[in-house]
Amino acid sequence: MMSQQEFSKFALDYLVFGNAFAELRRNGLGKPLRLETTPAKFTRRGVKDGVYWFVNDWKEPHEFSAGSVFHLLEPDINQELYGLPEYLSALNSAWLNEAATLFRRKYYQNGAHAGYILYMTDAAQSSSDVDRMRQAMRDTKGIGNFRNLFMYAPNGKPDGIKILPLSEVATKDDFFNIKKASRDDLLSAHRVPPQMMGIIPDNSGGFGDAVKAA
């Protein structure tokens, strides 16, 4: 009655929207032929019981035959017309995960931050050597590269030249902790064992048997 592809559509609609609709198609003799999924994004309930409509902005609304549409919904405590997906409580965690990824991506794309500071205090260096070193550091700049800073301070100390990795300090934004915590929130919202979602375990023991977890 329902092909594997149609069932995949049906299950996806249920997980995303908390609603899934299957229309019963009949042959010329009026006997059941197959079940087809109607997109939950555009399917609406009618005023009369058992009547459903396919509503799209650029098309005329299509009324399904009464009693031909099966509606599977995730129960909602406030109403009983449409379902409500369970993951809504974890949307803030999903947005936090996205924001952390975009922030780190933009950090490397903008190329306007310093990679390191070359700090030189040795006065024995000639001015021409200092100028050549400064020019060499300027020539390393490019699209997406770290910007390196040069500082010359004569009359220095024994550690006359130091390299301070500024980029390592600037990127301590708890990126991995944010990603891990928000991921765990999403797993809890979907109530799916991590081994069923293809997540790599952090420990050497793993998540255990996937069959038993399911």
Word description of this protein:
The chain is an alpha+beta fold and 214 residues long. Among the domains are: 4-73, no CATH class; 115-165. Helices cover 34% and strands 21% of the residues. The chain contains 6 helices and 9 strands. It has helices spanning 4-17, 91-110, 127-139, 166-170, 175-190, 210-213, and strands spanning 19-26, 32-38, 43-45, 52-54, 62-63, 69-73, 114-120, 147-152, 161-164. The strands form 3 sheets. The protein has a 3-stranded antiparallel beta sheet with strand order 2-1-6. A hairpin with a 6-residue loop joins strand 3 and strand 4 (52-54). The longest helix is centred in the middle third of the chain and has 20 residues, at 91-110. The protein is elongated and about 100 Å long.
Features:
single chain, 214 residues, alpha+beta, 3-stranded antiparallel β-sheet, 6 helices
Quick summary:
With 214 residues, the protein is of the alpha+beta class.
- Order of strands side by side in the largest beta sheet? 2-1-6
Overall body shape = elongated
The number of helical runs is: 6
Largest sheet: 3 strands, antiparallel
* Low-pLDDT regions: none
**Number of strand elements:** 9
How much beta, percentage-wise? 15-25%
Alpha-carbon Rg, integer: 30 Å
Helix-strand category: alpha+beta
H and E order: HEEEEEEHEHEEHHH
- What is the percent of helical residues? 25-40%
Mean pLDDT: 79
Distance between the termini: 27 Å
